[in-house]
Amino acid sequence: MRATLIFQTRRGDHAVLRREKVVKTEILRIGRGADCELYLPDPRLLLLHATVHRRPTGFWIEAAGEALIGIGDAQLQTAALQPGTKIRVGPYSVSVEAVDGGNISLTVELVDRLGDGLERLRGSASASLPKLLLSRRQWAWVATCCVLLLGLLAPLAQYYLVSSKTPPTGRELALRHGVTPGFDRLWLTGPTSSAHSRFIGNCTACHASPFSPVANASCQQCHGEVHQHADPAIHPAADLAQQSCTSCHFEHKDNAGLMAAGSGTCVACHGSGKTAVTDFTSAHPSFRATVPDGKGNMGTTRVALHGAGPALEHSGLNFPHDRHLKPNLRTPAGEMVNLECGSCHRRGVGDAGFAPIRFSSDCQGCHQLSFDAALPRRKLPHAEPDALRRFLEDTYVATVVSGEYAGADLPARDVRRIPGGPSAMEVPERLMLRDWAVARARETLNSRLVRGQCGECHTVTDAPAGAFSVAPVQMMDRFFPAARFDHGRHRGVACESCHAATQSFTARDVLLPDVGTCRTCHGGESSSQKVPSTCLSCHSFHHQSAPLAAQRP
């Protein structure tokens, strides 16, 4: 609505002064509150006395709470406003001058002044200090002495005469910090945080000397592993070794001041530059994941998740997620299984991340690594090629001697023995068996069966002497080292909501979401429609490797 407010004042010479004000609002509030559009500064009115609404049937005035409005001799809670209507709102007369669609014009006049009654009331209620036995100066000195006694001398006496001599008992602590406080509590600026609640009653644990700020050494008695925020050699301005812990961490403000939860401190430095960050919703760069660089030296590189092409990594593995997530997969035993993300990715310690994937527990149920049809019960270990070669040589020797191996390529002479009987093998036979086992192991290791099984998941290349080598596997346990993500707190969200594993046919795909996926649920610090998220929701502050205590003077 558009309301024209005309304030009318009558003077003794019968002159009328008019002052006009135009406001645009959905609801016109009337009262002595400073936020009212029609502000009427009279103590006989409520802070919000009445409101004017526009309805389909026209304009209506409605009294707030237990207040009443007068029309003629009637006292009403609500009334329609028509041109010519006169309403009494406390000592004011409000007249409706005109109503035109969404516009209304009101004339306001104070018709019932307080008069001399208020002055008489003020005069009878006034009291002066000279009438109370002492002068103003003397009363000021009395008040000063009381403040010094209760606020300074009494707490000091309690500290030096009682608290400093014997540690307080449990009852004394309960009295001091419970219903009956001690004098020293007068100095507390607020309640102790829950993290430091065990120090209640032991002020010297942090305040080593009276009337002195808390020293960093007191904090480091418990927090000795706190690290720098940035490398001081690169960012000298961010060197925390020269700063006080209490410049950021405020005690005696309950839990609100112990750790700065807002993003203002971070934005002060990170709010400008090439990758400026000011708000998670409107100004946060695309995520960059730390992945293996594929150069064979276990190094890493960073790739953007929202670049010109798909983000790729070089872990050394060949693993198609889409094939393993198809329904009704057949196991070597002939059973039908349906794998899901949790079949391999199991929650780790603390429920925040995941435990490492192991071949023995996560892969070997289907990939059993058979190597010789003559030894169907024997399986290769998941190991390097040299270890496989030694395993095969020892296995062939042992199975031939025990009679388990029944292949057609046995040595020319019978080198087997009766089970439980003494070995009758002579030196030439032993050498012959050993040479045969070495040759058979080399042949098996380079067979299509073994190389094919290794190459199904690994990158296999030829090596000298007819052998092969397997590229090292480098699997990342954290793709965002400078951030943290708690999978346990997101357990109600389906894995496919963030990781497109069912559409990935190569292990080189970086199956991580970009910032846009997070923004579907998370908003900025002041967000009301989504989860409010600050910088510290995902990032740690003291994340540098060097402990801060070792760098402080």
Keywords:
single chain, 553 residues, five-stranded mixed beta sheet, 11 helices
Report the C-alpha radius of gyration, rounded: 42 Å
What are the segments in which pLDDT stays under 50 over at least 5 consecutive residues?
A: 174-180
N→C terminal distance: 67 Å
Principal-axes geometry comes out as elongated
Under CATH, the topology of the domain at 2-116 can be stated as Tumour Suppressor Smad4
CATH architecture of the domain at 2-116: Sandwich
What CATH first level of the domain at 2-116 would be assigned? Mainly Beta
Mean pLDDT: 84
Q: Structural class given helices, strands, pairing?
A: alpha+beta
Task: Provide a descriptive summary of the structure in words.
The protein is of the alpha+beta class and 553 residues long. Among the domains are: 2-116, Tumour Suppressor Smad4; 385-470, no CATH class. The protein has helices spanning 116-125, 136-163, 170-177, 216-220, 264-270, 321-324, 359-362, 385-402, 427-445, 448-457, 515-518, and strands at residues 2-10, 16-24, 28-31, 38-39, 50-55, 58-63, 69-71, 74-76, 78-81, 86-89, 92-100, 103-110, 288-292, 300-304, 329-330, 336-337, 460-462, 468-470, 522-523, 531-532. The strands form seven sheets. A five-stranded mixed beta sheet has the order 2-1-12-11-10, with no helix packed on it. It has a five-stranded mixed beta sheet with strand order 4-3-5-6-9, with no helix packed on it. Strand 11 (92-100) and strand 12 form a beta hairpin. Helix 8 (385-402) crosses helix 9. The radius of gyration is 42 Å and the shape is elongated. 11% of the residues are buried.
